[in-house]
Design goal:
Elements lengths: L3 H22 L9 H17 L7 E6 L9 E5 L4 E6 L27 E5 L4 E3 L2 E8 L14 E5 L4 H7 L10 E3 L3 H8 L4 E5 L13 H11 L1
Parallel strand pairs: 1-9, 7-8
Antiparallel strand pairs: 1-2, 2-3, 4-6, 4-9, 5-6, 6-7
Helix pairs in contact: 1-2, 1-5, 2-5
Length: 225
Amino acid sequence: MLPVAARRAFFQTAFEKRAAQLYTKLGLGPAGLSLAVFREGLVGYYNLRQASHTASPPLLTLIDFSRSSQEKRLWVINVEQARVLFHTLVAHGKASGADVPMAFSNKDGSEMSSLGFYRTAPTTYTGKHGLSLKLMGLDPGFNTNAESRAVVVHGAEYVCEDFVRAHGRLGRSQGCPALPVAETPAIVQAIKGGSVLYLHGPTGAGYRSQWLNLDTAVAAFAGSR
């Protein structure tokens, strides 16, 4: 058997190779997602899968708020099957900025988006925006007030190409990652049940997380093989 250090190095190399292979196979580069952001999401995905005490879908939803709202900046990825299930527009909070969000908050009433890792609710519900899905924030100081702020995944008429053409940017929410109305039912039904969602922000946003610990992610990755 390999020594502990050698075994750790072996699986870290395997993890990095897997991340690079998935990134290429999924076509994420041409679609506008950087390898660095995808890798962060994958690190959190393995850490959270390890931390979960219940079975959850092998899905990673990535939202890259370092990108313009005019671009499709949400991806839903089945990690086990190496498939992109959805790639679409997503709105940010109105107080976070105009086209590219620059300010983020965990405070009630801020009307800003909140960075970090989330777990989706077990089931959907129907609210004022139609079929919706609650999110549980997992990063203290960054998104743990998501439930009290009613930050949920929902559809909105202002999340569409027509709005972008008319205004030069997407419409904005009160902090929710709002989706195109037509795509919302399929997306929320797919990601419900405790799957992982990662909301990434621009450089300088000051985000940090226990879920970005590479050593524990590599150990979880090794245990899943």
